[in-house]
Amino acid sequence: MRIITILVACIFINACETATSIDAGRDSSATLSEQEKSYLSQAEYDGRLMYEKDIRAANATGLLLAKINPGDYPNLVGWVTYPNSDDFTVSFYQRAGEEFEIIADVIYSASEPPVVDIAPSRKPTELEVSMVKARIAALQRGASPCTERHNTVVLPSQSDEYWDVYVLAATTDPTLVQVGGHVKVTVVRSDAKVIDVMPLSKSCLAIDITEGMPEGATLAALTVSHIVTEMPIAIHPYINLLHDIDLAVSTKRGLWMVSSGQIKQL
Predict the structure, then answer these.
(1) Does residue 248 contact residue 6 with C-beta atoms inside 8 Å?
(2) pLDDT, tens digit (0-9, with 9 covering 90-100), for 153-212
(3) Comparing C-alpha atoms, which of 225, 209, 146 is closest to residue 181?
């Protein structure tokens, strides 16, 4: 039996213990219906895609800022990340009247370093324009009061008619894990109409992973209580992958371990 010591951060419950023993060897997948298994598989996929897009956007921002003066682009409206033939491209845009111009493309490859192309000689595709408009609409409706900074990740929704835009509460403090404050905004692809705004938590919880840690101790996992849905959602694999910290997620449906981007019922 593998025993995992967990630093506990209770979001919505009044009492919690500082250490928990979990039998990680027990397989409870048989208790899940096929529909629930499909739901969790989609949450894992979306969480990993969110992570892959977000880390490239963060890296691309640093690469671009090393080459331009942001003050030269007062009409900047942000960026989107979309697949290319080999990996992802992160493109940055500014308004030009009723249209958008590309400030730069940062092109990623599975085998080569990223390439920064300033002022490329192309126009945004219809896909890019749709994603940019969705990002702008989502920020207007979904930015939470938890943080001043927000990142966005635009993902395909379950229906081809919509985008799911994750408006992520962001922090620059490397000791904090921002668990609360994230919002999912569903936007119509064709006209950027917002049809749903879903806060993914009931609090603004940010966990200091250094607070209360004994000298020489190693943090194995964080545990959080999630009451917005009955099972974990895409934000949990995303946080797990972003911080490389396992999450034990307590929901109405049970207790779950999120590790390496995968969700397992305990």
Answers:
(1) yes
(2) 999 999 999 999 999 999 989 889 999 999 999 999 999 999 999 999 999 999 998 887
(3) 146
Q: Which of 203, 182, 201 is nearest to 251 (CA)?
A: 201
pTM: 0.88
Q: How far apart are CA 200 and CA 187, in angstroms?
A: 16
Task: Return the half-sphere exposure (C-beta side, CA atoms, 13 A cut-off) of residue 143.
Answer: 11
Neighbour tally for 206: CB within 10 Å: 18
Give 63-116 pLDDT, tens digit per residue: 999 999 999 999 999 999 999 999 999 999 999 999 999 999 999 999 999 999
Point out the least confidently predicted range of 9-18, 28-37, 157-166: 9-18
- Give the separation between CA 35 and CA 49, rounded to whole angstroms: 21
Which residues, listed in sequence order, are joined to residue 251 by a DSSP beta bridge?
254
Residue with tokens 């997620």: 249
